[in-house]
Write a structure and sequence with these properties.
alpha/beta; Rossmann fold; five-stranded parallel beta sheet; 37% helix; 18% strand
Amino acid sequence: MRKIISKKPRILAVDDVSVVLNAINAALEAHYEVFCLTKAEQVERFLRNADTVPDLFILDIEMPGMNGFELIDAIRKFKEHEETPIMVLTGNATVRNFHVAIKRGVTDFIAKPVDPKILLEKVNAQIKLWR
């Protein structure tokens, strides 16, 4: 487990739709430091920066290039993120995608569109468990 520190917890959201990222940011920015990326391929470079280590990830599944499931595998290759909570926020909330996400260690699976208050509550719960 991570030690409790005074900074705002950091959330990294990855979705190829900027409107979704804007909604995530608006729902969480008062309580969290939110970073948004539109391409999964940008995440590895982002994670190499020690100044922006996320406490939680929010990922879309269906993205061009690397999809969300492949991105989960890439994130888990970083030793410091082997257990970091990962939430999936998807417009394709099928039973199959749910099972694949759970097998990859996703901590929450949310269908789009999500109410901003529900998203905040779910993120709060994951951060509380993680810390």
